[in-house]
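Annotated sample (chain length 335).
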Amino acid sequence: MNPNPSRREREITEPVDLCLPDGSLNPAAVGWTRRPLHRTNLRGWGRNKRFEYWAITTPDHILALNISQHDYRANVSVTVMDRVRFSEIRQGGNRWLPRRGGLQDPNGAATARGRRGSTVVELTANSRGTALRATSDRIQVDVQVLEPSDHQSMGVVVPWSRRKFQYTRKNNCLRVEGSLVIDGVEYALKPESTSATHDHGRGRWPYRTFWNWGSGSGTSLGHDIGLQFGGKWTDGTGSTENWLRLDGELHKISDELQWTYDPSHWLEPWRINGQSVNVTFTPIHHFRALFNRWIVMARADTCYGHFSGDITLPSGDVVLFDNIYGHVEDVARRW
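Output written by the structure step:
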């Protein structure tokens, strides 16, 4: 439970620099937004983390595209999972000591392009939203994410200290159109049945990090619902990455959420609770991704399934939802 249920985070409504001229955290940047307002002017080399992660859910597949730049390491990858057989194809991977310059635009508007061998991922903002393209030996992607000009996305700055901090912007309930080709077989992606989730991050993290993340979107009980939950990494900072999207409107949740699950039985129900949150996630599939080079390590246990529960808004209204498709994850990093 949130030890201070009356706590509310500051909403930022004007553009602001993430960093001061010396590269430390700008105190005025700490807060949350409904649209991109932070200029992520990171400086220096060594501890910076920049990443763009897109997950696209279709009736048949879950597609993920990633470009990340961690100063000493970059990752470019495209992954597709079959939603019936749960088989996976992973293309791309890590590059060590890449050239500087990746994902440097402080406004996040420039085209992001990464290559690892034969795998190329390109993300381009345009007047309709974002064009996502990828080519690899087995997967080709050419899709348009549709983002109306009034679509809300939540950005938040999480401050560990003056020198360690993270700006994250989470977005979901985005419609998608285009095509996906897997081993020569083409799948047409239609907006009425295909949705996207976006995770945009810029910051300077502690070496050892743990987090939970959950996201889901869909229609339930006559409402369009978007769910965004986080945990562990934000605890004690005064910031959270939690919100409910109800019929397009974001409602910030400032509770520090308690995640309850059994790491020895990933497919048992997960529970996410706070002062205003009572949610159960029922998994249908689990997979583990592990990269371990001792000094640098990344482990992610991810489950796909459905969210059900209720969230109480500051007005006192209770929002009920059921069978919202999405994912949860338990992640550990040394990076």
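Annotation: The radius of gyration is 19 Å.
Annotation: The CA atoms of residues 58 and 194 lie 5 Å apart.
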